[in-house]
Amino acid sequence: MPAEKKVINDQSRKRDDAPGLSRAVDRNTGQAAVMPTYARQDVVFERGEGSWLITAKGERYLDLASGIAVNALGHGHPHVTAALKDQIDKLWHTSNLYRVAGQELLAKRLTEATFADCAFFCNSGAEAVEGAIKAARRHFAAAGQSERWRIVTFSGAFHGRTLATLSAANNPKHLDGFGPRVEGFDTVAFGDHDALKAAIGPETAAIMVEPVLGEGGVRPVPDFCLVELRKLCDEHGILLIFDEVQTGVGRTGKLFAHEWAGVTPDIMAIAKGLGAGFPVGAFLATEDAASGMTPGTHGSTFGGNPLAMAAGNAVLDVVLQPGFMEAVQHKALRLRQGLAELQDTFPDEIVEVRGRGLLMGLKLKSPVGEVGNAALAEHLLVVGAADNVMRILPPLTIEDADIADGIQRLSCALKTLETV
Ligand SMILES: *Cc1c(COP(=O)(O)O)cnc(C)c1O
Fold first, then answer.
1. To test the ligand 1 pocket, which listed residue (127, 218, 246) has its Cβ within 8 A of the most ligand atoms?
2. 5-8: long-range contacts at Cβ-Cβ below 8 A with a sequence spacing of 24 or more?
3. Could you tell me which CATH number the domain at 43-75+323-419 has?
4. Where do the CATH 3.90.1150.10 domains begin and end in the chain?
5. Whole-prediction pTM value?
6. How does pLDDT run across 214-224, given as a tens digit for each residue?
7. Is 363 known to be catalytic?
């Protein structure tokens, strides 16, 4: 077998070098060499324009997936593209051995726009959540209360794929075969207020929650529950952590989803939309919550590099413009109305329309994978979530006509299912 593998590799290397061979052929031959951890749809995109993804053959797909809430400004946004091109010519990476101007600017802007006093930059959502967990634990250690290190989390949550963030979400499917859970997380059932209160003890450092459970089936946590969580944390002198990796950066029609509830956390993890496609994550904290994060306590080689910061700052240039969030809210209303009408047309297929802003979910009767494939056949991109929910997360910049187009394509997809 190793010999055979080697031959395949050699051939693919030759093909790569061969002039004039189509790039699509190379992609196909390389598929088996990619570790098969994803159930991918069989389509390759070559370029993007706004809310549309385009194959090498010129086929256009309407993107209501946004790379899982990442392409917040669609594809090829002129301002972000120009900012990155400009930075590419100047400087890519220096490490955190030196001050990074883009970090200082982005941190200042993020803290001015939120509850937070400081930000740590990393490269992904899981890293941001991991950092938030570390900050919460260390806050109490620094205050002489090192016995407080446990974090209360919710079943059905998703916090990332590192060992600690998997342990925090406690999804048996994701943990299977990876050895013992990382200690220190107490998971309570979503919506079980009594269990939540019972889970808080003398070892509890924090409660961590997503304002809308994204991967967990687009389940919004009601505003009054977020208010209660804040009260509960204040009563017990513990920290509140919001995982806004998916809900942040305008996704729900506010810069951050918790603004709807009028409460603020002590620590917040963000990522997905922050770089509009360039990998950037961060966790933000109040000065008090970050009290344990002193020099040497945390770090990242790549985190906050000049390219990532150029992307983040360019995204903020756009989303902080006056009227941007109002426009997102307007689009969200259109989308919700379109989905509600769709539910009226297909009451046997759509069980529930739920979500907030441009993070919407359709709870379906047919398996979500089948509906997703039917949508793909209509050149429409959507994302599955737990609880048999189809997620619809268009770019925040989607045009009204494209929302209508998306509803139409979804309608066609559902019609094909009915006739099967
Ligand atoms: C996607 C997601 C993460 C993990 O982000 P990665 O960049 O994939 O590590 C964490 N929390 C939430 C709420 C997410 O949606």
1. 246
2. 8/32
3. 3.90.1150.10
4. 43-75+323-419
5. 0.93
6. 999 999 999 99
7. no
